[in-house]
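Record passed on underneath.
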Amino acid sequence: MKLNEQAQNLGARIVTIQIIAFVLLAILGVRLYYLQVVQGQYYSDRAENQRIRLIPIPAPRGAIFDRNGKLLVDSRPTYNVVLSNEPIKKIDVTDRVDDYAKGLGLESKFVVERLNLIKKQNDFETMVLKENANMQDISWVESHSLEYPELRVELQPQRFYPHGLVLAHVLGYVGEISPKQLETEEYKDKGMRPGDIIGKGGLEQYYDEFLRGKPGYRKVIVDSRGRVQSEIEVVQPQAGQDLVSTIDFDLQMAAETELANSATKRGTIIATDPNNGEVLVMASAPSFDPNIFVQGSKTPEGRKQIAAYWQEEERPLFNRAIQGRYPPGSTWKIPESVAALQQGVITVKDSNLTCGGGIQVGSKFTRCMGSHGSPPLSYAITHSCDGYYYRLALKMKIEGLIKMVETFEYDKRSGIDLPNEKVSQTPKSFKPYIEKRDGKWNDIETVFASIGQVTVNVTPISMLRAVSSISVGGKMYVPHFLKEFRPIGAIGEEGDRNFIPARSGFGFQHSEPKIIEMTPEQNEVVVKGMWAVVNGGGTGAGIRIADFDIAGKTGTAQVAALGKDTGKNKDHAWFVSFAPAFKPEIAVIALIENSGFGGSNAAPAVRGVYDAYLLKKNGGQTPVDPNLVAKR
């Protein structure tokens, strides 16, 4: 009986074991089918990726030249310590922080930032941990290659600005794309990744798409620790396109020297060709060294200097030419004169208005700096008669001033090919605020606006654009720096998997100038008044040049109440001009902050640029002391 029961139990056990074995084999078979058939390609690729790596080869950015071929910006090779992501995926990276910081001379905080950033990337991505590695850094990495296989030294291009402070606001600088930028559609669509270098200001930012090249790569075999064993393939990068700018470096240096020698060493000088809008000079002081942002952003010293730039009271990162908004003073009278003629408020033959030594509006008397009788328009321009323009603006009314603002596009950006340009503030933009505050626009506001004060704050580039348009009969061009982008050849053969097509060269897409309607007679009376400012005993007589007629207008813009206009509250000095007066080749404007009279401070700075222009035009070279710029 017991034997039969045991036999029956044994049979049941065998069946149970068989069923369990079958189920396990079935599960194993299904799993093997899933791994080898369904997911076979995935694991094959993953295994291949663990054996084969693509190491990016960064593309050099295009160089930037002045109009005569002088190098302004270039890329030069430098050794960088690169951190690979895959070897550190499964370790506690906090163990590496102190070692990296001590071995490479980095701040621990910075190392943590880099490690946190790379841990968010794909397995085989890389990121620069330290730029400009010296022999000590390279030796440390090589001697610890077994301990830290994630580190390697690579030769990569680095942006270099050979002229330092000169043209910094125009050229800009480059830097790593920020996490915030990576979240925007603009950069997502371009396939940008953490660690990629992009333009961060100036032409570098505005034309980043063309200056930035297409990276190549090295296809290599690595061992289990991620060390390169052999090279399979190399796809060369395609460099960015070279940019030829409209800048004339010799004239630029003359402008930089004038700013360095100015009373406050704060201000801007701009020069353009009024016949096409090409910018020949744009200097803004104080300036900054863009190399600090490129070479020092990952070092304690560099970060300290960058922080100092942002915190400095005189704002060296601020491009005064396109971002500064200043009361224009009497330079405002030039577009105002044209507008009054356009609107029929005065005519060429009947333009006399009373000066009266000033004007009484309600209980307030606003003075003129002289007593000029009842002058015609050209005399009022030459001798900067405020009393004349008080009455002219009252005849134009606020509506006429707003129409002038719109005609000369002071209510818009000039369109210059630089990022972050500001729009001028004018009676048009101030009118809603004034009416809300006072219930209406008062005549006294019109009087103040007539001489470029209180409700008028313009950018120097917008003022130069407006006045230079008058020099060429009313053709107002878009100011620009781009002369041409040079073509770049293709990489590889068409049809190849890694083929990168050639990029064509192109120039600035000249839009047709806006036409400021005026008759030849109206144009002539304004230009003659400006000619006499310098050549006829006017407020700019001190910069007269024999056989080279400058037409100009001084401006002394009040920034504080009388009696308080000293030191940092001293008047801004302006001078806007073009030459030769009746067939212009160049237009120049200078603004020297808080320096006093325009004729004494801004006009001589403009004269320095004209001297350099004539010297060069006559076959000479501009003498420049580079130490003057370095001492700013």
Remarks:
- Residues 572 and 593 are 5 Å apart (CA to CA).
- The longest strand covers residues 71-84.
- Confidence is low (pLDDT under 50) at residues 622-632.
